[in-house]
Automatic annotation (TrEMBL):
Protein name, entry field: Molybdopterin-dependent oxidoreductase
Pfam family, any one: Mo-co_dimer
Chain positions covered by the region annotation Disordered: 1-24, 524-552
Keyword Membrane attributed: yes
Entry's transmembrane regions: 33-55, 91-111, 118-136, 142-162
Alphabetized SUPFAM superfamilies for the sequence: E set domains, Oxidoreductase molybdopterin-binding domain
Residues covered by the Oxidoreductase molybdopterin-binding domain: 280-431
Domain Moybdenum cofactor oxidoreductase dimerisation: 443-533
InterPro entries: Ig_E-set, MoCF_OxRdtse_dimer, OxRdtase_Mopterin-bd_dom, OxRdtase_Mopterin-bd_sf
Keywords: Membrane, Transmembrane, Transmembrane helix
Keyword Transmembrane helix: yes
Gene3D superfamilies: 2.60.40.650, Oxidoreductase, molybdopterin-binding domain (3.90.420.10)
Length: 552
């Protein structure tokens, strides 16, 4: 049992307990051993989270490891996660990491039944992983290492201390000799009497200490979470007030959507806007710390602050952005009134030299994106607002890129801090290194929103309605057919501009029973959305969307 005490020399073999008598319990019971492992882990993680709450939430070793895992995960794993869990992919990752860590902590605890060494090694290794993850995050600095270091130290200390308490408790359950041996291991100087009541006292003491650690970890973790929330958009955006564009977008005309018939509203609210990114925890940038650096193929390097952008004449543009990972019929497409400054005007501050074909942008968390310079100069926006408000943090506060017509991964950098003009041959952006295409204009697509799949609709005339998009080309027509019959041309919603989606509706006379309807869009160049289903990799899905329902 002695080898179990804190301060045991590493050379001491696990069961070299002097004075140990045959028949005396040699090991911690499994339950307390596992509990000690779990509580050591919990205490370490919670304190790491608390310190990160003060320094900056992303310094939390748990989140840093998660963010690193996302960046290191092989592309197919990430695509699977996005496909399977959608926007919940991050919650699933957090839950999965929690389960794995819990399992490892139980195992570490169980391996430490003869002595705290295995669990100590586990805590140190895990802490080191946290340190390495925080160290490697592009949005974190050396000070942020305090969070994982605190987690490591607290994890080790709490584990060893609770282990000692548990050992003492176990000894009490055993016999006097072993209790005596353990007495020397007391780390807190608490006197343990030799009375027959000692076993109960020891056990109670262990339970009280464990509960104390659990409560303490809960308080620390919650505190960290609350402190982290402090720096929300609220924090630095609150004083910004409403953004009033010098050139507002034209109002959305009546008849642009068929929301009462089941299409989305033409403008997506900020809270409903789809979200896709690699950030497990959203980067929280304060405007006073934000700067945008323009460099590379420019006449002079320039660094712009938030006020520099805000003081330029602001424009407002209605744009539909779309994710390349969107499956046929998928939800990763939304429309907003983006407020910002034309990227052409921003880049003019630095002077664009001829020769560059790529605008290589980097976010504060190190994500990168390559956009054709021609598209950027033609219609790119450095957006600081969405639907009249500062950008929500999930959508890139304080500033992001929006370049209509290109999938988000090659055009829509959120939390942008760096713009470099170079050549596509010089530098490869984040998703290119993971097998996605260098150029990715949005493909013509259409989706059926009503009737909802597998519902029953009343007999008679059935309204089928949905969305279509072919950004920068425009939608020419949408056709719908039922059960493989003749194509019917749908009525289109009023066009807003070429950068946005278009809603459609059609009435079909369908008899009672099950029906399958399909839709296909044709863009203004005359090209019809192809029937063949192609997966999103490497440059966007194709195929006709279909839906099944019953007429009753
Ligand atoms: N910093 C950063 N910006 C990013 C991404 C990212 O992972 N990190 N993802 C891009 C992708 S793939 C898409 S589709 C759009 C989505 O923007 P949204 O979340 O505002 O809808 O953001 C783009 N900008
Ligand atoms: Mo995307």
């Amino acid at each position: 049992m002695e080898s179990g005490r804190p301060g045991a020399t590493p050379s001491e073999p696990p069961s070299s307990s002097a004075g140990h008598r045959a028949g005396a319990p040699d090991r911690l019971p499994a339950g307390p051993a596992a509990l000690v492992g779990v509580l050591g882990l919990g205490a370490g993680l919670a304190v790491g989270h608390l310190v990160a709450g003060v320094l900056g939430p992303n310094a939390s070793p748990f989140l840093a490891v998660g963010n690193t895992a996302i960046d290191l995960a092989p592309a197919p794993v990430k695509e699977f996660a996005i496909r399977t869990f959608g926007t919940h992919d991050k919650l699933v990752l957090i839950g999965g990491m929690g389960v794995v860590l819990l399992g490892l902590a139980v195992v570490a605890g169980l391996l430490s039944r003869r002595g705290p060494r295995p669990g100590t090694v586990f805590a140190v290794v895990l802490g080191a992983v946290g340190v390495a993850a925080v160290w490697s995050r592009p949005d974190l600095g050396p000070v942020d290492l305090l969070a994982p270091v605190a987690a490591l130290v607290v994890g080790v200390v709490v584990f060893r201390w609770l282990h000692a308490v548990a050992v003492r408790r176990g000894a009490r359950v055993g016999d006097g000799a072993s209790a005596e041996g353990v007495e020397g291991a007391a780390v807190d100087g608490a006197a343990v009497d030799g009375s027959p009541a000692g076993a109960g006292t020891g056990r109670r003491r262990f339970l009280v200490m464990s509960a104390g650690v659990a409560v303490g970890a809960g308080v620390a973790g919650t505190g960290g979470q609350l402190l982290a929330g402090r720096g929300d958009t609220g924090g630095s955006a609150v004083g910004l007030g409403p953004l009033t564009p010098a050139t507002p977008a034209p109002p959305i005309p009546a008849g642009a959507d068929f929301a009462p018939l089941g299409t989305p509203s033409f403008i997506t609210s900020n809270s409903d806007f789809y979200r896709v990114d690699t950030a497990l925890s959203v980067p929280r940038v304060r405007v006073e710390n934000w700067a945008l650096r323009l460099h590379g193929g420019v006449d002079r390097e320039v660094v712009l602050g938030y006020a520099d952008i805000r003081d330029m004449p602001l424009v407002e543009r209605t744009v539909t952005i779309t994710c390349v990972s969107n499956e046929v019929g998928g939800e990763y497409v939304s429309t907003s009134n983006f407020i910002g400054v034309p990227l052409r005007d921003v880049l003019e501050r630095a002077g664009v030299k001829p020769g560059a074909d790529q605008l290589f942008s980097t976010s504060v968390d190190g994500w990168t994106c390559g956009t054709p310079v021609a598209d950027v100069l033609d219609r790119g926006l450095l957006a600081i607002g969405m639907n009249g408000e500062p950008l929500p943090i999930e959508h890139g506060f304080p500033a992001r890129l929006v370049v209509p017509g290109l999938y988000g991964y090659v055009s829509a950098t959120k939390w942008v801090v760096d713009l470099e003009l170079n050549r596509f041959d010089d530098k490869q952006a984040y998703w290119l290194e993971r097998g996605w295409a260098q150029r990715a204009p949005i493909k013509t697509q259409s989706r059926i929103d009503a009737p909802s799949p597998f519902t029953t609709v009343p007999a008679g005339s059935v309204t089928v309605a949905g969305i279509a998009y072919a950004q920068q080309r425009g939608i020419g027509k949408v056709e719908v057919r039922a059960d493989g019959g003749p194509w019917r041309t749908a009525e289109l919603g009023t066009e807003v501009n070429l950068a946005t989606w278009r809603m459609w509706r059609v009435e079909l006379d369908l008899g009672p029973g099950e029906h399958t309807v399909e839709c296909r869009a044709t863009d203004r160049t005359g090209a019809t959305q192809p029937e063949a289903r192609v997966a999103p990799t490497p440059d966007g899905a194709t195929g006709w969307h279909s839906t099944q329902f019953t007429v009753g």
